[in-house]
Every structure is written in C-alpha cells, then in structure tokens.
Amino acid sequence: MPIKNNNNEIGDSELVDSARHGDTVAFGELIGRHSDKIYNRAFSIMRNREDALDISQEAWIKAWQRLSQFNGRSSFLTWINRITINLCLDCLRRNKRFNAESMDQIDEESGGVERQLPIETPNPTRRLERHELRERIDEALQQISHEHRTVLILHEFEGLEYKEIAEAMECSIGTVMSRLFYARRKMAVLLSGLRQEGY
Amino acid sequence: MIDERKELKIQAYLDGELTIFGRYKVNRLLAHNAEARRLHAELNSIQELLHHNELDHPLPEDKESFRTRITHQLRVEGEGTSRVPNRIRPVLKWVAASAATALIIFAGVYSLMSPENSNQTPAHVLLGGESIEPEAANASFITFKSESAKLSVVWVDTKSSPVASPIN
Lengths: 199, 168
Prior knowledge:
The structure holds two protein chains of two kinds. By secondary structure, chain A is mainly alpha-helical. Chain A has two domains: 1-95, Orthogonal Bundle (Rna Polymerase Sigma Factor, Chain: A); 98-199, Arc Repressor Mutant, subunit A (Orthogonal Bundle). Chain A is 69% helix and 0% strand. Chain A is built from ten helices and no strands. Chain A has helices at 12-20, 24-46, 49-65, 76-94, 97-109, 130-143, 146-157, 162-169, 173-190, 193-196. In chain A, helix 2 runs antiparallel to helix 3 and helix 8 (162-169) crosses helix 9. Among the domains of chain B are: 4-50, no CATH class; 89-156, no CATH class. In chain B, strand 1 and strand 2 form a beta hairpin. Chain B is built from six helices and two strands. The interface between A and B is large, with 54 and 46 residues.
C-alpha cells in the first residue's frame, strides 16, 4: 500500500514495511529522515567528502536491495548505519590505505611512542562552547590514522563492543584493544591543549 | 611504569569488558598503584570527552535532490527487473531451476524407457518433435535454455547417425 501523505507521523518500521512492497515514496521518506546521519558516519570514517557521498548513496541503494533481510531486531537507522560502516571498511581495504598505514603502525601498536607520553588529565574548570569543543575533537580525529580513528568511532560513537569491532574490521580482539588504547592516548595528547585553556 | 598488558586491562575495565574476577584484579591494581590510577583517570576523561561530542557533518548537498536522485535510480533499476516483490524472487528462481531440471530428467528417462523413440531426442519426445532451438539439418544436438533459471543444457544425441550434406 503506497504511502502518499503525512509521512512525518509514520514510524520508520511502517515506512520500511511499505518500502518492502516496492514503495519508493516511503523509502524516500526514510532517506529524507536519515541521510544526514548516514553521510555523517561515512564522512567520520572516510574523512573525504566525495567518498562519503558515494558511500552514503551506495548504502541507501544496498539497503533497498536488502530490505527483505532487515529483521527489525535493531532500528532501521542502526541497520543502515552498519551497512554504511561495512562499505567504508570495504572501501578503505580496497584503497589499501589500511595496509600502507599498518606499516607505520607496527611500532606504535607494539608499544611505541604513545607508551612514553605523560598522562594527561584535563581540568574540568571551564567548559568550552559545545560546538567549539566538537570541532576541536574532530580536528584531533582528523590527525590520527584511519585504523585508530575507525576503532575509536565504532567504540565511542557507535557503542560497539570489542568483539563486534573485531568482526567488522576483520582483526583480533587484542588488536582492537591495542588500537583503541593508542587511539585514546593519542587523542589525549592532541587534546591536551584543552587543558591549558582550562577545559 | 606499568606494563602494556596491565594498561589494556585498565582500559577493558573502563569499557566494561572484564569478568568479575578481572574487575577484582584491576580494582586491586588501582588501589595500590598511583600510575595505574593516573592512566585510568586519563582514559576515563578522554572517554567522557568523546561521549556525545561527535561533530555533525551534514550532507553537503540539498537533501531533496539527494533523495530524488536515489529514488529515481531505484525506479530505473526496478523497471529493469520484474515487478515481482523482492522476497518472492529467490523462490521463483528456485522453482524455475527445479522445473527445468525435472523437465530434463523426465525427458531423459522417457527416451531411455521407450524403444520406439530411440531415433528421437528427448526434447523431440517431450515437445512433440519441436526443439527449443531449431536444429540444423545435420546437427546431432539440441540446446535448451532457461533465462529465468540462468540454465543452458546441450543434449548431444550419440545414437543418430551423421547425415552427409552435399557440398556444392
């Protein structure tokens, strides 16, 4: 049954049901609702506007093609978010950015420079404006490697457990723990300026 | 300096990834080791800092045109395929493939069991003397194709004698 009007009052699950029956209008409504979030996740991992746009578009088309596989155990947004993350990881593997960077990271991940860094403890006496704080965090994320950033994003922003990250990134739980540790320590160093500014 | 294994244990403690026994061990470490406590504080503060502080990167183009472009692409793709709902398509493919296989087996068995049909190919028997693809005068095989099942079967008739065609 095609959905024509008042889509704002309709829940995602009803739109998904209609889309499963071939209703592109209902699917278009889902795109309208979640396209920003999907693009945002793609951009946060890829750090490239064109790649992020291509991947988010591909994610929507894949979601349409695989709607019959959506079982409703998670929300539609969580489901399509996972499709997007997998596409990003596939793209990074294809581009061999992972491999190129891995060569530089062997030393880091086996107890390299971050282990020698002094421990940073931010001072919570002053709060930066929320947007400014987010921009600073984003700049710091930009400066760490794809592998470290991806682990951090999947854990901190997506709330995935070690095991889930290991499956998504096709690596061991030990590697996830190690990458997450050094990503956090790098972020602590990169954001240490916030300490001087009284954050 | 605490070793790497302990550092990762402290992190796992913070992330809620340890067993009760593992938590007990890290609690003891934190109680007796000042450096472990400093590391725990640092990791904890970074975790809190990142939590709910992801910068939004909105879609860099008009949302409506993005939506229109994708739905248009979906419609174009949809027109290229049948109007059968997605969930029924695999079943139909399976049915078509099974039907084609059954047809071939039936034709083979029938031709073997009927001596009077020994000069005819199974497809001749099954289709009343009409092959699916026209045979050449001197051909000793026929081809069966099913687009829906993505299946092609070539039946080579070794019983029929070759027919010599005159060469001009």
